[in-house]
Amino acid sequence: MMQIGIVGKPNVGKTTFFNAAACADAEMANYPFTTIDANRGVMYARTKCPCREHGLQCHPNAGKCIDGIRYVPIEAIDVAGLVPKAHEGRGLGNKFLDDLRQASCLIHIVDVSGSTDEEGRPCGKDSSHDPAEDVKFLEEEIDFWIQGLLKKDWQRVSMRCKLEGVKIEKMLADKLTGLGIKEHQIKTAIRRAGLSSEAVQWNDEDLLAFSTHVRQVAKPILLALNKADKADTELINRFQGEYAIPTSAMSELALVKAAEHGMIDYKPGDDSFTVLKEMDDKQKKGLEYIRTHVLERFGSTGVQQCIDRAVFDLLNLIAVYPVEDEHKLCDKKGNVLPDVFLLPKGSTVIDLAEKVHSDLAEGFIRAVDARTKKIIGHDHELTNGDIIHIIAK
Predict the structure, then answer these.
(1) DSSP β-bridge partners for residue 69
(2) What residues does 122 pair with on adjacent strands?
(3) Is 258 among the domain residues?
(4) What domain range is 172 assigned to?
(5) What is the pLDDT of residues 284-323, one digit of tens each?
(6) pTM score
(7) Which of 189, 288, 304, 316 could connect to 214 by a Cys-Cys bridge, CB 3.0–4.6 Å?
């Protein structure tokens, strides 16, 4: 299952976001390093399910489908808060960074209200902190971490690369394989950094430049501008043009819990809710605050939108449905649209076959587009929402 890291400095609402997104109950508190061991759970990316288009009721093996919206499971990992100089071992820095090794992308929870300082401590009543500084320092910490991994034996490895004629991207892919960084991502990073193909010529500055670009390619970051209901619009607007979404994780958690108890009708990502049963004054006041200060102001709590944008925009993935009967859109047991796979945009039928099972790819004969009923080959490029029957030996 694909993994997304929930990151940020201490005390900004990371675990609240995690609990709201994954319907979990990780410990939350108003002090740094509440999270020591990474919390893991499942959150869901939303995409339109083909079941409504075909007048069918689907039967997901994983995730769920509600009113024609498919909720695709994604692993979420909520890691310890990051503080400046974490790459040197401050706070729980080394553990934080190690926990992020296999994350495909990161959702950075930023206290956009400026109510916590760089260490995650509450600011005084007459002071505030610039959230843009938090964005900068977290990116730099990851860059220095990657650079540190490369610097340990750089001269020996780069010289070996030269003497044995090994391409630099192959050598770097071997060194960074534990981070889930692929060779094509390394090629892109080297090109964007404008670096020489001769690894022995790289100095510390070059390694840092490469680390920055490979982080941007292989660990892209979306900003969840948390506590947005407490922030000035002008401050939020400073982040326009980036992958940044105004967010209130606490509001989402409250709505999810209220829905679980049958108090309101609400689905993650909705722009409103409907009250179903009588509540006390405190509950009414809380929900009314969320309605006026969050939903009406921003259109949602932002939590679900962060997940969706991370998956479908930041990572540029598409959802594809493999079936074994292109007419009934089901598997051998008659389950309708049982599986959905997330693949990079530009993926082909053979990529889908490999994702489903390596034997399916090895024995590939042809495939059928369930919508058009046309035969398609292994190199046919897939689009979001495709339903594909793969025929193999």
Answers:
(1) 48, 66
(2) 116
(3) yes
(4) 143-217
(5) 999 999 999 999 999 999 999 999 999 999 999 999 999 9
(6) 0.90
(7) 189
